[in-house]
Amino acid sequence: MNQPHVQKKNQSQLPDVQVKKSRLLERNRDPFRNIKIAVGISVAVLFTLPIIWMLFVSLKPNGFSTTNPVEWFIPPFTFSNYVNLIFDSLILRWLWNSLIVALITTVLTLIITSLAAFAISQMKFRYKNFIFVFFLLGLMIPGEATIIPLYEIVKSLDMIDSYAGLILPMIASPLGVIILKSFFDNVPKEVVESAIIDGCSYFKLFYKIVLPLAKPAMAAIGIFTFIGSWNNFLWPYLSILSETLYTLPVGLPVFNATYSQAYVLPMTANAIASIPVIIAFLIFEKQIVKGISFTGIKG
């Protein structure tokens, strides 16, 4: 008999609860929220303005020059520069080389670093700690210090001016091994021991149990390996002799050097090289942000 009365009482209390929640939200509201939004929009415009300017300049007729910056953003516009560069230059070839080298380097790096980290983390063998310290020491040596011996090794293996010479020296990643080892160390020992008791081999344990748990770490390492390989200039510049094997970081300066007094064609070449990267960033924005935040909170 008292249930309808209790329901009416609860219903009468609902508006009061909602009012209290709204008041709490108002109290906790950031007083600088609008200022932060305005600053964020201003910074975004500041960073995107060079890209917008590059796109507008690339659409100008070849040889166009002006003393007034506003004229870059008004007609005439043409796509003939893109057509000429795509069919009469090696820029698409350089773009393809960068994509192939970055993808293969990323895949091989993930495979090798994950296997090495799993062995150090889960397998028992002598000098395991010494090997891990060896990887830690690898972080203290700058890449430029190893360029000369690396070049001599690649030259002795007859891999200069080849895809193998571009890819294989870049697949070693001490940082990747260290990050993945810390992830593999956090796998519950009970899970690993029960899998081994059930007859699971180390390889099955690796790709069926341990590796799926490390997807965030693998994604972060893959993203930064791809970006590092895509932007790498020094090693491709030293190891590649023929223009057909140039990557974008090497080919673009060579191309721009022939048009040192012009704006339009170098900007068109830069736009062609930047558009795929911009599209990839828009597609994988969440993964890239997660990778950056992951490297800040895991170690």
Automatic annotation (TrEMBL):
InterPro entries found in the cross-reference section: MetI-like (IPR000515), MetI-like_sf (IPR035906)
Membrane topology listed for this record: Multi-pass membrane protein
Subcellular location: Cell membrane
Main location: membrane
Any Pfam family matching the protein: BPD_transp_1
Keywords: Cell membrane, Membrane, Sugar transport, Transmembrane, Transmembrane helix, Transport
Annotated TM spans: 37-56, 94-118, 130-151, 163-184, 205-227, 263-284
SUPFAM superfamilies named among the record's database cross-references: MetI-like
ABC transmembrane type-1 domain ranges (all copies): 95-284
Classification via PANTHER family: ABC TRANSPORTER PERMEASE PROTEIN MG189-RELATED, ABC TRANSPORTER PERMEASE PROTEIN MG189-RELATED-RELATED
Family the entry assigns: Belongs to the binding-protein-dependent transport system permease family.
Name of the protein in its database record: Multiple sugar transport system permease protein
